[in-house]
Amino acid sequence: MSRNYWIAAAVIVLVTLAVVLIPGVQDFIEGRLLRWLAGAAS
Question: Rounded to 10 degrees, what is the CA torsion of 25, 26, 28, 30?
């Protein structure tokens, strides 16, 4: 696989682990995602 695929896979794994292990990260990411979606929809 290309180097970019390895980097993308590592980022996904790290974000998933952060959401599972660190309290409050899920709410932060959810809030950012919802704000981004609301901005994209308008």
Answer: 160
DSSP secondary structure letter of residue 22 = S
* CA atoms of 17 and 2, how far apart (whole Å): 23
Angle between helices 3-21 and 25-41 (to 10 degrees): 120
Angle CA 20–23–6, to nearest 5: 40
Q: Provide the token pair at 35.
A: 């704000």
Q: Which residues contact 18 (CB under 8 A, 6 or more apart)?
A: 25
Q: Over the stretch 1-42, which tens digit does the pLDDT of each residue have? A: 699 999 999 999 998 888 888 888 888 888 898 899 898 888
